[in-house]
Amino acid sequence: MKTDYFCALKRVIIVSSFLTIGCIQANPDAKRLYDDLLSNYNRLIRPVSNNTDTVLVKLGLRLSQLIDLNLKDQILTTNIWLEHEWQDHKFKWDPLEYGGVTELYVPSEHIWLPDIVLYNK
């Protein structure tokens, strides 16, 4: 039983490493763009050219799931997606310099995020 588990785990790790290597090598222009954009990026600094400028953040709520509706106690339980959008002037590039790459996925933990608090009363 343990041997089967470890064999399956080894397969998953091997396949994952091949997929990761394949993804990195699949588009060297995107990797170069990613490295160039994030080389001097500090996620703790607001994305503005002038410190007195404001960052316009557009917020949206998207209902993902209605979990429960309690009519007696007037309680609605849901799951929602909080969408926020803003412009970061540091993430601009000429696609011609990067093999035509026009979009790039950057994990949220690597970029500046607005401080947003949802208050439910």
Automatic annotation (TrEMBL):
Question: Among its keywords, does the record have Cytoplasm?
Answer: no
Q: Which UniProt keywords apply?
A: Cell membrane, Ion channel, Ion transport, Ligand-gated ion channel, Membrane, Receptor, Synapse, Transmembrane, Transport
Q: Matching InterPro entries, A to Z?
A: Neur_chan_lig-bd, Neur_chan_lig-bd_sf, Neur_channel, Nicotinic_acetylcholine_rcpt
According to the UniProt record, one GO cellular component term is: postsynaptic membrane
Membrane topology per the record?
Multi-pass membrane protein
Q: What is its main location?
A: membrane
Query: Where does this one sit in the cell?
Result: Synaptic cell membrane
Q: Name one GO molecular function term.
A: acetylcholine-gated monoatomic cation-selective channel activity
The Neurotransmitter-gated ion-channel ligand-binding domain covers 31-121
User: Which protein, by its recorded name, is this?
Assistant: Neurotransmitter-gated ion-channel ligand-binding domain-containing protein
Give the species this sequence originates from.
Answer: Polypedilum vanderplanki (Sleeping chironomid midge)
| Organismal lineage | Eukaryota, Metazoa, Ecdysozoa, Arthropoda, Hexapoda
